[in-house]
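User: Second chain of the day. Same drill as before.
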Amino acid sequence: MLSPAVLALGATALCASGCVWYLPAAADLRAGADRPVSRRLAAAACLTGWATVALSAPLLLAAASWTTLGAVTGAGSATALLLAGLPVPAATCRSVPRHAPGAPSPPQAGSLNCRTPAP
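Assistant: Same format as last time:
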């Protein structure tokens, strides 16, 4: 069985590499009303999940019991899943047109930016 110090080091390394998810999520939450409710809920779920992983490292180093560690990670995971699964009011959903008027036209088939359909 791995020692708690090795598990804490792994959790820390995982959190350091997860910045590609939690930094944009933090920016979405800081933007506030500029972002749709669905995006803010997803960002809150993301941050809750990563905070749960980050909180497990000090608990492992402090030699907390497995029961305590399981309770904290279980509560954090349940909260993240609850936030991710909350329904979004239909009034806050926006339909985004595929091509807005005044915007540059989308790339044509055969250009470098567009995939051609498979034969």
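Helices lie at 4-17, 19-31, 37-61, 66-85.

User: Great, on to the next one.
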